[in-house]
Structure formats: C-alpha cells, structure tokens
Amino acid sequence: MKCFVPLLAFGLIAACSSPKAAPDNGAQAQAATAALLPVVIHTAKGPHRFDVEVADTPEAQEKGLMFRKELGPTTGMLFPMDPPRTASFWMKDTLIPLDMIFIRTDGTIAFLQGDTEPYSRAPVSAGVPVAAVLELAGGRAAALGIAEGDRVAWGGCAVPGGKVMTERNFCPSAP
Q1: Coiled-coil annotation: which residues (predicted)?
Q2: What is the 3-state secondary structure (H, E, C) of 1-56?
Q3: 135 in any annotated domain
Q4: Does the residue 78 lie in any domain?
C-alpha cells in the first residue's frame, strides 16, 4: 500500500497539470513569410523583385522545389554556394517547370535555363563556379526579359532603404 500512495499522488499531479499548448500554425506561417529573402534582378527593362526561400542546408538543397505543385510569379528558391562552385541541378521529382538562373560571384547571370522539363534527370549547369542558383517559376525569366549578364542582388542590398533584417546580403559592386 505504501508504494501505491506515491504512485497515486504522481498520477494526480500529472492529471492536473495543464496540457501543452497546440502549436500556433499562424505563427509558423508568419515565421516562414518573415524568412523570405528579397532578391532583385536588374534587367534592361528595369528591376524585378522576388521574395524567395533559401535552401541553406545540404538537406534543403537536395530537396529544393521537389513535389511543389505551384510556384507564385514573384517567389522562388535561392541556393547559395559557399564557397562558390560549379553547380549541377536536375528536375527529378520536380512537378513544375522552372527557370534556373546561375549567378556569378560578381552578381551577373552566367547561365539561364528556362522552362526546365519536369522529372528530367538531365543535368543543368553553367559549367563555371557560381555564388548561387535561383529557381523561379518556368517562363518568368522570358516574360520579364531576364537574360545572361543581368545583375542580381539579395538581402538588404536588394532593397536599399527597406527594412530588411538579414545576415544574408549579396551586394556585388556595380560594373
């Protein structure tokens, strides 16, 4: 009987404890939105801004935009390459066409592959070391006049005077 009393007391305390709060999905959505990084591409037609996710871990880079059913016209994903390296991408398990933009360390676009074919295992690469690869919805680059040689910046540099709080700044100097 002596063993039963402490066990009963423990059970009552556990039963009376307040349950853990359910996760706040609204807060998680706000955190995800706040985590978006502004990217601006300066083209002959003017600047174009995108708010993109950042694939900043090997796992995130491996998954990328796989299994996404849609991608908004001003969204995308940035794959930073630190240190810069020759990057090669494919479309295995990617359901939608993408534009792949390979960005040199000086901020210029080295190579642009538009409307990549979903599910393709054919490698896509600039063939030179790059600072990052930006993926946008298929056809956006052509629609906006984005071309090789255009300049790219992200983070606080992309929106001068804006209130962008990030340590991810890519501010190549003007030519």
Answers
A1: none
A2: CCCHHHHHHHHHHHHHCCCCCCCCHHHHHHHHHHCCEEEEEEECCEEEEEEEEECC
A3: yes
A4: yes
